[in-house]
Design brief:
Blueprint lengths: L3 E9 L4 H14 L3 E8 L7 E9 L11 E6 L2 H7 L3 E10 L13 E5 L1 H7 L6 H12 L5 H11 L8 H14 L2 H5 L3
Parallel strand pairs: 1-4, 4-5, 5-6
Antiparallel strand pairs: 1-3, 2-3
Length: 188
């Protein structure tokens, strides 16, 4: 059976949106999957809107352009307002609950709110919010292994940031812990 995950990640520039999608794509590549990563951002970059489509597949990807997604990781209200309607029925909406005040009214998708910004502040580094979101996402949808994410980070991060790898691992693990057991039961 063909396994394919079509994911949209969206938020403000500076939230690590593009690197979140790219990290998942690199992790998929490490695991021998076919991957596609397509970024999109406004001219403002930091503070403007950004999104990327990441596709991970066990077989060839026919097109990186897709209208509906299996999952969405949405980091702010404008992104939720724009992309929640484009999640396939039965799909996953993972959102940053500190930045989204009005969750989607959809009842045909799984919705999981994660307070990743608050958790990143607890870990004293707001730049790892996106790693917390990856950890939560992989807890619900284990499309790649955490070890592959860490190998991807080691490969793409400049060497001067390698001392932060243990913090990134802690952020991934913390994100997984933030997913409530009741939300996992609803994944069926």
């Amino acid at each position: 059976m063909k396994q394919q995950e079509e994911l949209i990640v969206a938020g403000f520039g500076g939230q690590g949106v593009l690197s979140l999608g790219m990290t998942l794509a690199y992790a998929g590549m490490i695991e021998g999957k076919e991957i596609s990563w397509m970024p999109s951002y406004g001219p403002e970059m930091r503070g403007g809107t950004a999104n990327c489509i990441t596709i991970l597949s066990d077989s060839k990807i026919s097109s990186p352009i897709i209208a509906l997604f299996d999952s969405a990781i949405l980091l702010n209200q404008p992104s939720l307002d724009k992309f929640a309607a484009r999640i396939k029925p039965g799909g996953l909406l993972l959102y940053e609950s500190g930045n989204i005040f009005k969750p989607s009214a959809r009842t045909d998708i799984r919705q999981v709110g994660i307070s990743a910004t608050t958790e990143a502040n607890r870990l004293k580094n707001d730049k790892i919010m996106n790693m917390i979101m990856i950890g939560a996402y992989l807890q619900v949808k284990p499309v790649v292994k955490i070890e592959s994410v860490m190998k991807a980070l080691e490969a793409v991060l400049p060497e001067k940031y390698h001392p932060l790898l243990p913090l990134n691992l802690e952020a991934l693990q913390r994100g997984a812990l933030l997913v409530q057991p009741r939300e996992l039961i609803m994944t069926g």
